[in-house]
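re: ur question from earlier - yeah i can do the single chain one, its not a big deal. heres the input i used so u can compare w yours
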Amino acid sequence: MVSADFAERPIKKLVLFDVDGTLSPARQRASPEIIQLLRELRKQVAIGFVGGSDLVKISEQLSVGDINVLEEFDFGFAENGLTAYRLGKPLESQSFIKMVGEKDYQELVNFILHYIADMNIPIKRGTFVEFRNGMINVSPIGRNATVQERNDFEAYDKEHHVRADFVEILQEKFKRLNLTFSIGGQISFDVFPHGWDKTYCLRHVEKDDFEEIHFFGDKTSKGGNDYEIFSDSRTVGHTVKSPADTMRICTELFLS
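and the output i got, formated as tokens:
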């Protein structure tokens, strides 16, 4: 039986959403239409977001006005759930640096920065390695790129496999560290310990005993940062191509 906190929802299911490409265009704000859909959906089911970015970035994308994003969702999972909230209250968090250790972390980052320095790509900007609580995010072009530069790099990467080739080298070089390298969004990939992918968030919802857990994401093929949770036996996975696609499927499943 679902926990008392969600007993009044007509449908005893949890619906989790990736952020970039699922609820909003990559690193851009969600539309008023999808925010309204989420509010309607929350009257029927429990809802949550699960993104690789930190909470600040996710809040920028999903917040409306002065309303705290954590008030709009039952569950908030930033950094794959390593920073987690349930009904606005923080849950236990994890630390990438504690798990990996300073010595190995520096060796990893030094190698990444040297590799990017020698990389021949059309443009580079800034913030090539972003340190987060539960992972690091690596971007060959740099996270300071504009929206147009991100779009251009995404198209370039599809042809030249810049990120995939980079990941393959890191997987071989740092095999002993038991790290996962997960490509997501338009310009970067995440690095975190094995098991700290988006399935990590599922441990935070087990005790609520939902009838089903649905997950919506756009990077659901192998190597994408939605793949593990999408294919997990504990979830019902849905692949979407855009926020509009998310709205359509949610309406068909839960609001018709």
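The longest strand covers residues 179-184. not sure if urs matches, ping me
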